[in-house]
């Protein structure tokens, strides 16, 4: 969670909207609803919209509580939303995750319109994955809809969802990283420049991105005469349906194929694989973690083993293909306690936004109870040249329990990494590894993985 | 006309205008679809039964 403001406990990610804000007290998260938002809040609750959205798993449930407000002068109510197990951001989502978040946002808008309300913002940061599904976490996102009114969140929707999805699907899937640079979504003129020329023949992208970017440039800073036109409800429905269809048409298949099996390309036997699964399962059951971070999770096989104990597992990998496969599995099996996440451990998500406090760095969203680092150490120590003591320092900060696999130099995967470079890693041995990690951890177990030269460790941070 | 209260995020002048254009165009499509039943009846075509999709949409995700 973002850092609380020292005076009131107000969280730094929710300062823009005058309808209310989040604050934290005694480790519990509350949302103050301001008097300014009384009418809207009442409509949300009384129209049945809240109940319908919560029932469909589209809106985070909350209870009204008798808690001292953080800003008594403006308070209408204080509510306590259900806590999200792990906050993630759009630049950490796979294509499918961002697409589902976009479609969910349009679904909120359609449902809201039915009861005379409309979304007043369409920020991707208002969506979190809860029980495996994209869920709106900002209860104060709805305003009263007046016939004739345009969709005020239209520009934001295009920047936060349509532009990055189009770039990912039609240019390069890695372009979701633009979201990390542009906190209010991808600028449309940039998206328009980067998208292939053929996208001008796609009605949804031609209008909502290319012409939209052109109109922004042409009318930049201009006062539109009394915001002259009005937009019928039918036109609003047309706009939302058009965006929905433009988003649905965008597709990205991981590695060009669906459900390619990653573990076919590993170098170890079925017995080694099963042995690793068994150890991860046993140790998770023994330590009973609530939050597990599986770093270098690939498509999440071991995350699922750890998750069998009921833990919530953040299943992070640097490969967009693996993360997409992982998410598709979450969806198809309706898994509720696993969050696939796109993360480069050698350059994890930093804290970004105003005063560097709006969106937390990855490390600040921990620590986890248990961290899995399987078949990862050689990528950090050899590919990325991080000295083993520094790798140990990093893991000591991320969680209490560490399940880590040591992959020796003789392993063919490590040999591959060394084939075209000097071996400048004299301490990269089992002994060197243990010496470095013993500075920060107590080694509780060390088990040779069957039919392999690898060793699996259970460690506790000191 | 002005919409009171004004939004707390600036929708942007260009975004506003293009939105009107797209929405008007697509709204026309919605209107035609909505009255398609009546239109096709004139030509003696039976309309297909269509469920109200939205309420079931999210549950089935």
Q: What is the overall shape of chain A?
A: globular
Low-confidence segments of chain B, ≥5 residues, pLDDT <50? Answer: 56-61
Structural class of chain B: mainly alpha
Largest sheet properties of chain B: none
Characterization of the model:
The complex is a heterodimer of chains A (about 450) and B (about 60). The longest helix of chain A has 20 residues, at about 95-115. In chain A, helix 3 packs antiparallel against helix 4, helix 3 (about 95-115) runs antiparallel to helix 8 (about 235-250) and helix 9 runs parallel beside helix 10 (about 300-305). In chain A, the strands form four sheets. In chain A, strands 11-10-9-12-13-15-14 form a seven-stranded mixed beta sheet, sandwiched between helices. A four-stranded antiparallel beta sheet of chain A has the order 1-2-4-3, with no helix packed on it. A two-stranded antiparallel ribbon of chain A has the order 5-8. With about 450 residues, chain A is α/β, with parallel strands linked by helices. Chain A contains 15 helices and 15 strands. In chain A, strand 14 and strand 15 (about 455-460) form a beta hairpin. Chain B has about 60 residues and is mainly alpha-helical. Chain B is built from three helices and no strands. Chain B has helices spanning about 15-35, 35-40, 55.
Features:
heterodimer, A: alpha/beta, seven-stranded mixed β-sheet, 15 strands, globular, B: 61 residues, mainly alpha, 3 helices, disordered C terminus
Secondary structure layout plus pairing:
The complex is a heterodimer of chains A (462) and B (61).
Chain A: E1 20-25, E2 28-34, H1 38-46, H2 49-55, E3 62-65, E4 75-81, H3 95-114, E5 117-119, E6 127-130, E7 133-136, E8 142-144, H4 154-170, H5 178-181, H6 188-194, H7 203-218, H8 233-249, H9 270-287, E9 291-295, H10 301-307, E10 312-317, H11 320-332, E11 338-342, E12 368-373, H12 377-383, H13 388-398, E13 399-406, H14 412-418, H15 430-438, E14 441-448, E15 455-461
Parallel strand pairs in A: 9-10, 9-12, 10-11, 12-13
Antiparallel strand pairs in A: 1-2, 2-4, 3-4, 5-8, 6-7, 13-15, 14-15
Helix pairs in contact in A: 3-4, 3-8, 4-6, 6-7, 7-8, 9-10, 13-15
Chain B: H1 13-34, H2 36-42, H3 54-57
């Amino acid at each position: 969670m973002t850092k609380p403001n020292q005076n009131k406990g107000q969280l730094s990610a929710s300062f823009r909207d005058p309808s209310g804000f989040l604050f934290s007290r005694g480790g519990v998260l509350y949302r103050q609803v301001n008097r300014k938002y009384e009418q809207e809040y009442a409509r949300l609750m009384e129209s049945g919209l809240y109940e319908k959205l919560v029932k469909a798993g589209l809106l985070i449930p909350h209870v009204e509580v008798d808690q001292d407000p953080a800003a008594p002068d403006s308070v209408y109510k204080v509510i306590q939303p259900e806590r999200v197990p792990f906050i993630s951001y759009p630049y950490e989502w796979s294509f499918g995750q961002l697409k589902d978040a976009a479609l969910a946002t349009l679904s909120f808008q359609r449902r809201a319109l039915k009861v005379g309300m409309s979304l007043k913002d369409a920020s991707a940061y208002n969506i979190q994955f809860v029980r495996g599904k994209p869920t709106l976490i900002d209860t104060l996102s709805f305003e009263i809809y007046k016939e004739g009114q345009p969709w005020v969140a239209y520009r934001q929707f295009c920047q936060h969802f349509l532009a990055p999805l189009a770039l990912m699907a039609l240019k390069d899937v890695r372009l979701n990283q633009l979201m990390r640079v542009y906190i209010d979504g991808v600028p449309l003129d940039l998206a328009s420049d980067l998208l292939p020329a053929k996208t001008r023949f796609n009605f949804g992208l031609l209008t909502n991105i290319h012409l939209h970017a052109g109109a922004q440039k042409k009318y930049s800073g201009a006062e539109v005469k009394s915001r002259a036109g009005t937009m019928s409800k039918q036109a609003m429905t047309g706009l939302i349906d058009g965006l929905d269809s433009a988003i649905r048409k965008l597709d990205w298949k991981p590695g060009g194929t669906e459900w390619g099996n990653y573990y076919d390309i590993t170098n170890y036997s079925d017995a080694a694989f099963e042995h690793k699964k068994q150890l991860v399962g046993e140790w998770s059951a023994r330590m009973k973690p609530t939050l597990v971070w599986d770093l270098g999770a690939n498509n999440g096989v071991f995350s699922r083993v750890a998750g069998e104990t009921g833990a919530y597992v953040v299943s992070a990998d640097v490969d967009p293909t693996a993360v997409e496969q992982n998410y598709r599995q979450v969806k198809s099996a309706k898994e509720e306690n696993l969050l696939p996440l796109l993360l480069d451990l050698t350059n994890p998500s930093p804290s970004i936004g105003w005063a560097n406090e709006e969106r937390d760095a990855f490390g600040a969203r921990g620590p986890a109870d248990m961290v899995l680092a399987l078949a990862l150490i050689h990528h950090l120590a050899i590919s990325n040249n991080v000295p083993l003591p520094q790798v140990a320092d990093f893991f000591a900060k991320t969680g209490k329990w560490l399940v880590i696999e040591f992959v020796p130099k003789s392993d063919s995967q490590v040999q591959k990494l060394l084939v075209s470079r000097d071996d400048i890693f004299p301490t990269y041995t089992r002994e060197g590894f243990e010496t470095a990690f013993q500075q920060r951890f107590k080694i509780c177990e060390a088990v040779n993985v069957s039919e392999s030269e690898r060793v699996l460790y259970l460690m506790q941070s000191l | 006309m002005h919409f009171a209260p004004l939004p707390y995020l600036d929708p942007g002048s260009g975004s506003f205008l293009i939105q009107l254009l797209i929405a008007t165009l697509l709204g026309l499509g919605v209107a035609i679809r909505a009255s398609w039943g009546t239109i096709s009846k004139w030509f003696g075509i039976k309309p297909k039964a269509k469920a109200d999709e939205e309420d079931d949409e999210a549950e089935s995700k």
